[in-house]
Amino acid sequence: MITIYGMRASGNCYKLQLLLDQLGHDYRWVDVDSAGGETRTPAYLAKNPNGKVPLLELDDGRRLAESDAILCYLAEGTPFLPDDRWLRAQTLQWLFFEQYSHEPCIAVARFIRGWLPQDHPRQAEVPTLLQKGAQVLAVMEQHLAGREWFVGERYGIADIALYAYTHCAGDGGFELADFPDIRAWLARVQAQPGHTPMQR
Amino acid sequence: MITIYGMRASGNCYKLQLLLDQLGHDYRWVDVDSAGGETRTPAYLAKNPNGKVPLLELDDGRRLAESDAILCYLAEGTPFLPDDRWLRAQTLQWLFFEQYSHEPCIAVARFIRGWLPQDHPRQAEVPTLLQKGAQVLAVMEQHLAGREWFVGERYGIADIALYAYTHCAGDGGFELADFPDIRAWLARVQAQPGHTPMQR
Description:
The first copy, chain A, is of the alpha+beta class. Chain A is built from 7 helices and 4 strands; from the N terminus they run βαβαββααααα.
């Protein structure tokens, strides 16, 4: 059985929970409190030298890091990752958009507001993150106009990856009122068979 | 013929030049001065709403953004991207590491030092970027101990993606003296057939 090392309230980890639950794939979940420093212990760094969750471990001890790489690995050969070369490329485009443009604004604002003290110096980053994150949401809103899903005609891992931190963007102070197509897409994701909520 | 919209001195764009040259793939290159604001014009935003280079455009007008997604698309079916499921997953792991952990330190320090005035407020970010970037380089150094390439036994797009900003890390103020395995790997990459340097 595969093992996921993760923190339940982390969107990057929740992505894997959501996909695995929807695939009906058995897995063992090992809680690692990333916010509390448990990814920086020598024991954890021996598993993932980059000191981050989530981490996938196979029965034979092989390990894979990076949430969106794990999504691709687990979704291979399932309806959650298209076979078509162009649709796969589009999926990767949105996964890299998620990790490079979306997560560093939308997840980081949530982390600062939700996990750091109100007088922490990083609170000063929040206004800039809100401004940049609104631009990211505008890119998503524009793409979703007239579309049901991010890639092709089908719900898949691009939707899962982007859903993870978009559905809880309010925790970071983002307002989705101006993004009706995003809100409609969030509702479609939540209505998918086997959808499980994030533990917050 | 495919078209790449890119800025020659950008590592994210250079990745594509390097792969295409090594594949012997014909392409048209359209210079877009990202640092000078040319990715934020209405005409460019109509091509890539996220306002970034590089961008791949096919003959039929379809477009693909995100440098590492483009690498995967172009490398599909070539020796630069393994067929094996686990090696593909490892490749993606390193591509996401590159975009999430490496580029935001190592490329951004280079940008601030190379493109922004000496009295620009963002110069204050450099010490933190140097510290975080050194941790990223340490992860690479550890991985390269006893290995020739990042994934499997073969040079591929994980090496190309990581080479792009590592070989010019000195521009950002990084010192590679403490990373002998990285320096040996850089030399191996430079010795590959068809290697072309970045225009700086």
